[in-house]
Specification:
heterodimer, A: mainly alpha, B: alpha+beta, five-stranded antiparallel β-sheet, 43% helix, elongated
Chain lengths: 248, 476
């Protein structure tokens, strides 16, 4: 069981005791005044002061740790979810884009990931960091999507996607000056089986540690090592001309 | 050094570029690389590969993501507010299914309308007969008419009243804490502890002459209330005023209120030693005046709702009882005692033979385990609130009855009886201690056991407090 840091506790206490103006009511937009959800029983003057502090408090909340924000969310301040979303939306978008390389799909999938997180956040138990937890949701969503697509295209669980691999070879065969390295790497990743692709994306693009990858993919660290090794071997094989070119 | 397998080499190199090899593994690999140019080339390619993959530029930030997402979130919240126990998209299917079921039931009902109508008619008639015609009309008798002071005291302190001369059947009232009250007619618990005579009470509590007068008045009040609360009809109906269930608590608090602190302590001790259903604790040192005590009793709401029990059915009904007329009839009827005795025995025999059905609001059980046993439970919401005895500087709370102590029975065996509200989540729990181990007995489930290794020490017998009583039980 995770123990809250003093920052987490000290950050939450004023919110719970209404020392500050407390909650963002719902999802406030920029420039709109935020209302005070909990009745404070203060005088008008005090409440006015409170509203002044609210804006300052928005800024303060923005700098709070994930744990503080989650605790606030779990104690009823659902408005703080905006801060969590904005904090991680780009990482989740990029993660899903790295997996699928599909601009159209990632918008919906990112939204679904944050909806799932919103539903599950009341039950978040601080047993892992928020972002690995969120990554796990994103990866599971990504897996579902990959399975759907795989069933449609009869993909292999263990071997390279032949269709994508052929496309990669075609593009690799063009004059090196006309090659789009980024596209080739993306196709190389796309050709990898799901679990190998996820391991490479989480390690080399998102920079997660082996432990974090194991947590996100819900497997052992040894499995992570093995998957990374096999994924890189496959990528090395499929991107061989490009790698030789880079080496030379 | 012998060449490594391609898989082993790939695994080592992959871990090497991620910097997760141990010191020994790293040195081994670096030594291997010195003598294997192919491995060096693979390492270089893997490093290039890692650089290529990690060089992927991030997507352009999407500042409008939240705006779009918040719309979706709002829709999601609205969907969540759907109170149906299933997703809204299944509504048409569920409605169709429901309609189908209604149709099936309707068809079955039409097909079997005659037996059904007959059944409803019979039940309606039975209830109507009890309720409108036969119920206590013209032949009403109080089941208890000449109860003596000892019996009243017995009821006042323990909620138990023998129904026949040999005390083979008794009326019991009981408070079931949060659930409500229970009225029972049945065989008495074989427990001589729960008997106390007026003399015993007086010698134990030692009230002054003035206090004794107040207590006499209280018992007299209780006697009248009991006589007017348990009635029988010549159609084998017993009607018990629901208020009677509360009389026990009111009497205990009223008697305690007129006593001085040391007398109250002795009274409390007597209740504990006799295993009374209530325990008391003082909130003040000044005894309440008789005026205040009776004012408190007058504030006790007197409901005219009776639990009407027949061998066939059960009702909770308003009955207007003219006790003055009844008393006049009793005085004119020289055979009254004999009539009541005959009626009482007949009723008890009939109850013993019958299986009572339940009616919502009550739980009634009869027969199987204890022949001739009627138990009616009345939920709190159907009962008027008893005046707060704290105004009399006395706190009266239900005390768990003496529990049947589960095996093992041991010498010097101790347990603590909690008042209901102090147990975990309101579950009546008895804790017992032996040889430094704590055990628990769940009153509801009847499960008992020790917690291994919990050293809490053997507790000494404690005075009743807000948590309950600590009691020592000796092996029989």
């Amino acid at each position: 069981m995770r123990i809250f840091s003093s920052e987490a506790i000290l950050g939450v206490i004023p919110q719970l005791w209404n020392i500050g103006p407390v909650a963002l009511d719902g999802i406030p937009e920029e420039g709109k005044s935020t209302s005070i959800r909990r009745s404070t029983g203060r005088t008008m003057e005090q409440q006015t002061k409170g509203q002044t502090v609210t804006r300052a408090n928005d800024v303060a909340l923005d700098q709070k740790s994930d744990e503080v924000l989650i605790t606030l969310f779990q104690t009823g301040d659902q408005g703080v979810y905006k801060i969590l979303v904005q904090r991680y939306q780009e990482r989740i978008r990029n993660l899903l884009y790295s997996i699928f390389h599909d601009d159209h799909a990632i918008e919906d999938m990112t939204q679904e990931v944050f909806i799932k997180a919103y539903e599950a956040l009341p039950r978040f138990r601080f047993e892992s960091s928020f972002y690995t937890w969120l990554y796990r949701i994103a990866v599971n969503r990504g897996r579902d999507e990959m399975r759907k697509r795989r069933f449609r295209k009869f993909f292999s669980f263990q071997h390279l996607d032949e269709t994508v691999f052929k496309e990669l070879q075609t593009k690799m065969a063009v004059n090196p000056e006309n090659r789009d390295t980024e596209e080739l790497v993306a196709l190389g990743l796309k050709a990898l089986p799901e679990k190998f692709r996820l391991a490479v994306v989480l390690k080399d693009i998102d920079g997660l540690s082996y432990e974090e990858i194991a947590e996100v993919m819900q497997c052992e660290i040894g499995t992570v090592k093995s998957r990374l090794s096999r994924a890189r071997a496959m990528l090395r094989k499929s991107l061989q001309p490009l790698l030789q070119e880079v080496s030379s | 050094m012998n060449p490594w397998s391609p898989e082993k080499l790939s695994l080592k190199l992959s871990s090497y570029i991620d910097g997760v090899l141990s010191e020994t593994e790293r040195k081994d690999l670096e030594a291997y690389l010195l003598t294997h140019p192919d491995a060096q080339r693979e390492l270089a390619e893997l490093k290039n590969l890692k650089n290529l993959v990690s060089a992927k530029p991030p997507l352009e930030p999407d500042p409008a993501f939240w705006t779009r997402f918040s719309v979706m979130l709002e829709k999601h919240r609205e969907a969540e507010q759907n109170l149906l126990p299933f997703p809204r998209k299944y509504l048409p299917a569920v409605l169709s299914l429901g309609l189908g079921l209604v149709l099936v039931v309707a068809i079955l009902t039409v097909q079997n309308r005659l037996p059904l109508l007959q059944f409803v008619s019979e039940k309606t008639e039975a209830v109507k007969q009890v309720y409108n015609e036969g119920i206590l009309k013209g032949s009403i008798l109080p089941l208890f008419s000449h109860i003596d002071k000892n019996q009243v005291l017995q009821f006042a302190l323990f909620g138990v009243l023998p129904m026949d001369a040999n005390a083979e059947t008794s009326l019991r009232v009981d408070e079931k804490a949060e659930k409500g009250y229970r009225i029972e007619v049945g065989r008495p618990v074989k427990d001589n502890l729960r008997r106390v005579t007026m003399d015993e009470f007086l010698s134990e509590v030692r009230p002054t002459a003035e206090q004794k007068g107040t207590i006499d008045s209280l018992l007299d009040f209780a006697r009248h209330r009991i006589e007017g609360s348990v009635l029988v009809g010549d159609n084998d109906v017993v009607a018990i005023n629901a208020d009677l269930a509360q009389l026990n608590r009111v009497m205990v608090s009223s008697i305690a209120a007129c006593l001085e602190t040391p007398q109250r302590a002795r009274f409390g001790k007597l209740l504990v030693s006799k295993d009374a259903p209530y325990m008391i604790s003082s909130k003040g040192h000044i005894p309440a005046t008789p005026e205040k005590i009776f004012e408190n009793i007058r504030r006790m709401p007197h409901e005219d709702h009776f639990v009407v029990v027949t061998p066939e059915t059960l009702l909770y009904s308003q009955i207007n009882v003219d006790m003055g007329r009844i008393r006049r009839e009793i005085e004119q009827n020289v055979n009254f005692q004999k009539d009541v005795q005959v009626t009482r025995e007949r009723i008890l025999r009939r109850f013993a033979r019958s299986e009572l059905g339940g009616i919502p609001r009550f739980t009634a059980k009869a027969g199987a385990e204890t022949p001739g046993f009627i138990s009616v439970e009345i939920e709190n919401r159907w009962m008027p609130a008893v005046p707060d005895p704290e105004q009399l500087h006395v706190v009266v709370m239900p005390r768990m009855r003496r529990m049947v102590i589960p095996q093992p029975r041991m010498e010097g065996y101790e347990f603590r009886v909690f008042s209901d509200s102090s147990g975990p989540e309101g579950i009546p729990t008895v804790q017992f201690f032996r040889f430094g181990q704590r055990g628990e007995f769940n009153v509801d489930s009847g499960e008992a056991g020790f917690h291994g290794g919990v050293h809490v020490g053997i507790q000494q017998r404690a005075k009743p407090d807000s948590l309950g009583h600590q009691v020592r039980v000796r092996e029989r």
